[in-house]
TrEMBL record:
Annotated function: Part of the twin-arginine translocation (Tat) system that transports large folded proteins containing a characteristic twin-arginine motif in their signal peptide across membranes. Together with TatB, TatC is part of a receptor directly interacting with Tat signal peptides.
GO biological process: intracellular protein transmembrane transport; protein transport by the Tat complex
Superkingdom as given in the UniProt entry: Bacteria
Subunit structure: The Tat system comprises two distinct complexes: a TatABC complex, containing multiple copies of TatA, TatB and TatC subunits, and a separate TatA complex, containing only TatA subunits. Substrates initially bind to the TatABC complex, which probably triggers association of the separate TatA complex to form the active translocon.
Alphabetically ordered keywords of this record: Cell membrane, Membrane, Protein transport, Translocation, Transmembrane, Transmembrane helix, Transport
Key word Ribonucleoprotein present: no
Organism field: Desertihabitans brevis
Protein's UniProt name: Sec-independent protein translocase protein TatC
Membrane topology: Multi-pass membrane protein
Transmembrane segment boundaries: 12-32, 70-96, 108-131, 158-181, 193-209, 215-235
First-listed, main subcellular location of the protein, grouped into a coarse class: membrane
GO cellular component, one term: TAT protein transport complex
Classification via Pfam families: TatC
C-alpha cells in the first residue's frame, strides 16, 4: 500500500471509531442519572472516609454556572461512550495494523490483540476502585473551619484522567507483543530494557496519576511492571517459535524444483 492508501485507511478506521463513540454516547444519555451516580460514587466514599476521621471537615461537590449541570452530563455521557465502545475502536486499531503482518501470523496475533479489551477495561476498573482511597488521602488535609468546594467539572476531569491513564497503561503488553510479532522489537531487547522499563513505570505512575499519594503510584506501577514481564515472556516464546520455523523455511526455499 502507498502512503496515501495508508492515510485513507487510517481516515476510514478513525471515522468508524468516532462514529461508534458518538453513537454509544448518545445511547448512554438515556441512563445519565445512573451514570452520574456511578461517577459520584468514588467521591461519596472518599467523603465518608474523611468525615469518619475528621467530622469537622466541610467537603461539598458543586456545579458553578447555569449550564454547568448540562455540560457535566454531556461529558459523562461522552466518557461513557469512550469506555463502552472500547471493543469497537480497539478492533479498528487492530484492523489498521493487521495488513502489516504476515497472513499466518495474523491468527496467532489476534489472540493477544483480542485481550486488549479486557486489559483496558481492567485498568479502568482498577482506577475506579482505587479512586476513593486516593481522594480520601488528598481531601484528608481539609482543616476544620475550611469549606472545600469541589467543582463538578474538575472532579470529572480527575475521574477521567485516572481511568484513561490506567486503561491505556494496561495495554502495554498488547503493544509490546504486537511490535514483537511485526519484527520491530526482539525479546532480548526487552530483557535488556527491563530494569529501565520498570523504573519508568514508577516514574509514569508518579507523574501520570493526578493524585499525589504514593498509593496511586504503586497501584499503577506494580501492575504495569508485571504486565511488561508477562509480555516479555510471550515475546521470548514467539522468538523461539520463529527461530525453530526459520530453518525449515530456508530449506524449503533452497530446495530445487524437479523438472521433467
Amino acid at each position: 500500500m502507498s502512503i496515501w492508501d495508508h492515510l485513507r485507511e487510517l481516515r476510514y478506521r478513525l471515522t468508524i471509531a468516532v462514529i461508534a463513540v458518538v453513537v454509544v454516547s448518545v445511547l448512554s444519555a438515556i441512563f445519565f442519572r445512573e451514570l452520574y451516580a456511578l461517577v459520584a460514587y468514588p467521591y461519596n466514599q472518599a467523603a465518608e472516609m474523611v468525615l469518619a476521621d475528621n467530622p469537622g471537615a466541610d467537603i461539598s461537590l458543586v456545579n458553578s454556572g447555569i449550564a454547568a449541570p448540562f455540560l457535566l452530563v454531556l461529558r459523562i455521557c461522552g466518557f461513557a461512550g469512550l469506555i463502552l465502545s472500547a471493543p469497537i475502536w480497539l478492533y479498528q486499531l487492530w484492523a489498521f495494523i493487521a495488513p502489516a503482518l504476515l497472513a499466518r501470523e495474523k491468527k496467532w496475533a489476534l489472540a493477544f490483540i483480542g485481550s486488549a479489551t479486557p486489559l483496558f477495561l481492567g485498568g479502568v476498573g482498577l482506577a475506579y476502585l482505587l479512586m476513593p482511597t486516593a481522594m480520601a488521602v488528598m481531601l484528608g488535609f481539609t482543616v476544620d473551619g475550611t469549606t472545600n468546594l469541589i467543582d463538578g467539572s474538575d472532579y470529572l476531569g480527575f475521574v477521567m484522567q485516572m481511568m484513561v491513564v490506567f486503561g491505556v497503561a494496561f495495554l502495554l503488553p498488547v503493544v509490546v507483543v504486537a511490535l514483537n510479532i511485526m519484527g520491530i522489537v526482539k525479546a532480548t531487547q526487552l530483557s535488556q530494557a527491563r530494569t529501565i522499563v520498570i523504573f519508568g513505570s514508577f516514574v509514569v505512575g508518579a507523574v501520570a496519576t493526578p493524585s499525589t499519594d504514593p498509593f496511586s503510584m504503586l497501584a499503577l506501577a506494580v501492575p504495569l511492571s508485571l504486565l511488561f514481564v508477562l509480555a516479555e515472556i510471550i515475546c521470548h516464546a514467539n522468538d523461539r517459535r520463529r527461530a525453530r520455523r526459520r530453518p525449515a523455511e530456508e530449506a524449503a526455499v533452497g530446495t530445487p524444483e524437479l523438472t521433467s
